[in-house]
Amino acid sequence: MEYEPVIGLEVHAQLNTSTKIFCSCSTEFGAPPNTHICPVCTGQPGVLPVLNKKVVEYAIKMGLATHCTIARVSRFARKNYFYPDLPKGYQISQYELPLAEHGFVEILVDGDTKRIGLTRIHMEEDAGKLVHPGSFTDTPYSLVDYNRSGVPLIEIVSEPDMRSPREAGAYLRTLRAILRYLEISDGNMEEGSFRCDANISVRPRGSEKFGTRTELKNMNSFRNVEKALEYEIERQIAVLESGETVVQETRLWDAAAGVTRTMRGKEEADDYRYFPDPDLLPLVVEESWVEDVRKSLPELPSEKRDRLVSQYGIPLYDAEVITAEKAVADYFEACVAVCDAPKQASNWVMVEVLRELKESKREITDFPVTARHLGEMILMIEKGTISGKIAKTVFAEMVATGDPPEKIVREKNLIQVTDQEAIEAVIDEVLSENPEQVDRYRGGKTKLLGFFVGQVMKKTKGKANPQMVNKILKEKLDK
Length: 479
What we know:
Elements: E1 3-14, H1 53-65, E2 69-70, E3 73-74, E4 76-80, E5 90-94, E6 100-109, E7 112-125, E8 129-136, E9 139-145, E10 152-158, H2 165-182, E11 194-204, E12 214-219, H3 222-241, E13 249-254, E14 259-265, E15 275-276, E16 283-284, H4 287-296, H5 301-312, H6 316-322, H7 326-339, H8 342-360, H9 371-382, H10 388-401, H11 405-411, H12 420-433, H13 435-442, H14 449-459, H15 466-477
Helix pairs in contact: 2-3, 5-6, 6-8, 7-8, 7-9, 9-10, 12-14, 12-15, 14-15
């Protein structure tokens, strides 16, 4: 029997406000444990929460950017459960009246666009963080850091519309890009500011009925999400084919072992005993505020991607890669403004620039090669001043020094040789040194042309114009 997976994702994104959602404590990441806390975020008796207006604004932005309906009235609720890092014994969230509902996100997979529905986007506070240092006097123990307690979150709940791990990965990357374009979250999975839980089930292909789902947690990268889903799909299919029943439960992804493991039985909404928070009034959002936020929205990733394709004529794949980060897209456009060679610019950005950024683990805003300098170097290639091969050397030097390409080319004498007589002299030398290869070429082994080109480029240290070398070689060898 063929099976198909049914996947829905719950994403928690920390909002990059300077203070927490219900108090004035700092949200700065990396501070010493329990230094950004107060009676409100540590749940002391008698304190009252006060809603941070900026959190609501950011949540409205995300709702509008994902085509949601913004509720004019929404309500905060208490989600009750016990965990050591939850100081109040409950989490302030939203339940029956969320801020935003019924939106969608469009993802691109293998050149095809698919719409993923959003059930809701709601605001809530984050919990603290447990630290497990090991043993103390042979007794296992844990420590709790409440700095994160009360940091504002939005939870983005999708419909079960994804049918493969790749679609889930594309959805997460799209959501993260939107958050970063809106500048409301840094989307850093390693620091926990962008977290994902996955609901996954399998069913016979063509069936309308959903299978029994499991929830996956502890996935701290896009690739781990995809790997965990791949494993869980195979595990559930194996369970069904053995005649057993899939159990509804929460499972943890063990990245080291590459398997999911049972954590606990899956809670339902009733288990949390939701009820309206008596300390917070219903949230009323005026239409005028929503419209003001709508006017402030930037050009979003999908809009920018489509514009780059139409305006610059680059392939859809190139535009998808470039627009994954707003700063990279801005860099590309600034580069094209200098060189007026969009495809060449997209090639350099996608391959060389992104590779350097990944290897050096830095943002493009800290990259030593400015968009202007890259554009100037591409212009030098277009004009024939340097060859594409020499450009790799120039680019590496630009990365190392931050110097403009013209200075590097001048100081290192890298200007391309375009003098026909000089190139002919080198070619004659190469042909006279390789008579056997010349005879084999003229005997029908025309693929040897590449050998001769390589020898000429070697003698000119890569500075000979490749097009001229190919043309002159063919003329001389075909006589």
